[in-house]
Amino acid sequence: MWQTVSPFTHAHRWNDEHVYVKIVTGGTYSIKHRGEVMSLRPGEIAVLDPLSGFDESVRESARQSLLYVQRSALRERGLPDRFPLIYRPDLESPDVCALREFVVYLTSQIGNVSDAVLERLGNYCLDLMHALFDGRGRPAPRHTSSTTALRATQVIARRIDDPDLSVASIATELNMSIRTLTRALRANGMSAMRYAWSLRLEHAAQLLASEPERAVLEIAYRCGFRDPSHFSREFKKRYDMTPREYAVSREAAREEDAAAGKRQSLLPSEDVDCITLDAQNLSSRSEILRFGRDS
Hints:
The chain is of the alpha+beta class and 295 residues long. It has one domain (2-266, 282-291): Orthogonal Bundle (Arc Repressor Mutant, subunit A). The protein is 43% helix and 16% strand.
């Protein structure tokens, strides 16, 4: 059974300011554009532009990961932001495949990891979107700095609670020398451990906000810090308050928001129809991330 959704039917979601990247992870999607129909199967990618107009059909068993990418974010990085035709990246490129696997991993973590960690990884992924457009049909070199950087961030995200995480252990897991890893990360403006420390602090802030009753000692260990005192010092440098002060401030803000919500509930309300693929009972599952300034 096929069911169809057109982006122009839902203008408040498919708007002029975004393009979106579709990665099929299960089943088959059919896209009709300018009278031609193309099928997307698991592992395939398409960059779609709502301004170009297309109709999309999905199988009941279909599943996809979607990236909503702000056009201005693409322009700032010197990347194309208009696609009169549906663009399908070169799947023979290791960079494209690495980015695809990274995106699928990111979307699978929605609801499982903190928003701060997800946003950090998402923003880094946005900086690597050039992998989709580099080469224009020519396979990229097998081992590029972008591919290595993507793989390194996956290792770091997976081992964020590991106090033994180090450049050496990351290099070992990626089966390369420390020098090769460091050079590849530097080419992408990264330092492995600075990135890891930043990610850990953001994860800690999310935990403190969502679980203020947790002891600071436990939060520190869950985020890969061996020394709670060192964690507290670094956290204060980053957020200008101690972990406990941060937890208290976030809890107070939450209570204030809850009180405001109760006051708002006394006012007349209207129904708002927020359209997503699975909200329309299309029997497909979509994991969605928004990239860009308004993400």
